[in-house]
Design a protein that fits this description.
CATH class of the largest domain: Alpha Beta
Shape: globular
Oligomer: single chain
Strand content: 5-15%
CATH superfamily of the largest domain: Glycogen Phosphorylase B
CATH architecture of the largest domain: 3-Layer(aba) Sandwich
CATH topology of the largest domain: Rossmann fold
Distance between the termini: 51 Å
Length: 372
Amino acid sequence: MFESVKSFLHLSYLKAKTHFVERRRWSSRQKGGDGCRVFYGHDHIPLPGEKASGGIIKCQDLQNPFPNTVRGANILYLVSSALPHFAPVMIRYARENGVKLILNQNGVAFPAYHGKKLEEMNGPRRFLLHEADCVIYQSRFCQESSDVFVGCRERPFEILYNPVDVEAFVPVSHQLISRAPTLLLAGSHHHYYRVLSAIEILAELVKRGEKISLTIAGRLVWKDDDQVCVRELARMCNDLGVSDCVHILGPYSQSDAVSIFQEADILLQTQYMDSCPRVVVEAMACGLPIVYSHSGGVPELVGENAGVGVPVPHDWNKIHAAEPEQMATAVSHILSSYETFSRAARQRAVTNFDVRPWLDKHREIFESLLLS
């Protein structure tokens, strides 16, 4: 009882403090003046050398040409997967001072992942979606899932896939880096099955006589304590007899990402109904073909020739992990024509996902909104 009261009082204090801070932030907005002045909802956006993941990476891309303007902004740019605390409070004071609102919309909550927490998760996103002057969906799948669970939008929107700097993310070679190829599972690992699937794929390949290894990079966060996750991962590897073939890197920064991809050969994307994983386009830019669950927004990213997808049912209500045997067969297929797949992956990233056109489109959106 005491802890619940304490938590309520702390939350009330934080909300009151937010009102005070946001009132001051937006009442001091510069009147007039030229140019796009963008605030991303957070006082600090991690630098490339700082460990970061998820939606905040898009703000890293944007803040070079459009620096994070903590006070005096005329555009509030929020990412649905990296929202600030009490975002509606921030929006209220921004709106009162004539600021334009853009929402970069990632996926939404649906029953397979969020069960009874659907409205708790989707309520704030529904408000933002319909309040925004423009919504940027990260994939057609993001728009589809948003239409189903948050509501169709009639006001302006764009579909812009997550970008990659193809001049920084480059291949080392279009040939296998070693005689024992390295699979890579990267990103933030919020779900146990995502990692288990990768270990099962590796075990199946080892059983077939392949000399192969797996690198797992990124946060292990399916439990609150990351050390519990590490122990569970070690137990998985031991149970499946692949402990000697698995290398765990842990969290990484954007500066670290290039070398991580360059030291691998194939990216495993095992998550079901993933919206628009940036890790996929970063891997392709480094020449890594993708073996993936053919679901969500990933097929839009990989296309026809940059990897192999394993079919799974389309189901909002239940997670369907791709069969490890089929994923292992997809890996073997790519290894048999590795150079062709690798070149196709690189070319697709360069042609479709380079950050420079993505930034140009953002400038166009910003300037158009400020003129309206």
